[in-house]
Amino acid sequence: MISWIDIVASVLGLTCVFLAGRNSKYNFWVGYLYTAALFVMFYDKGLFASLLLQPVSLAINILGHYRWTHPREGEESASDSSALKVSMLSWPERGLAVLSVLVVAFLWGWLLDRLFPADPHPYLDSCVTVLILLAQLLSSMKKWDCWIAWLVVNAAQIALHVSIGNIFMPIVCSLYLINGLWSLRTWIGLYRKNS
């Protein structure tokens, strides 16, 4: 059954990622509302790892809002000196990110399984949660790699929502997936302009 909070969260989420993919700093204002809506939605669905993510997500959103609008010297966009430019992780940084996700997701899943045995998929829930944190952190630093992480998140979320019987959210996650592909292409163009 689709609830009002599913619809509100979906509209806010789609708007937020659409704006982020278009390099708009206004995505953060929508992101604040989206975080609140997700907190309510995850509480209602019993997805506790995702619920516990929301305060951290809010903190990353605040950090990203500041970083996108206050670049350090040498980080300014070529088209707007008051905006952070798009950059990329190095290969060693990418390897560290993947290893960190695997270790933290396993540990969080183990803990979640013991604290909240009602969670239907603690390890998948935890993996999605940790991937979201990574994608948000990379996005807050305006790293092109965030879109790779978002694509993995969206695919995993489709599997998670299908497994718990959500009908509406897999459709929304598919739209996120399409936006992620578009944004991956858009941000590589922005990266090349600043290289």
Structural overview:
With 195 residues, the chain is mainly α. The chain is built from 7 helices and no strands. The chain has helices spanning 4-21, 27-45, 48-69, 91-115, 122-140, 146-163, 168-194. Helix 1 (4-21) packs antiparallel against helix 2, helix 1 (4-21) runs parallel beside helix 7 (168-194) and helix 4 (91-115) packs antiparallel against helix 5 (122-140). The longest helix has 27 residues, at 168-194. The mean pLDDT is 90.
E-strand count: 0
Strand content: under 5%
C-alpha termini separation: 48 Å
What is the makeup of the main sheet? none
Shape: globular
Question: Topology, pairings included?
Answer:
Blueprint (H helix, E strand, L loop, with lengths): L3 H18 L5 H19 L2 H22 L21 H25 L6 H19 L5 H18 L4 H27 L1
Helix pairs in contact: 1-2, 1-7, 2-3, 3-5, 4-5, 5-6, 6-7
Summarize this structure briefly.
This protein is mostly helical and 195 residues long. Helices cover 76% and strands 0% of the residues.
Task: Give the key terms.
195 residues, 76% helix, mainly alpha, globular, 0% strand
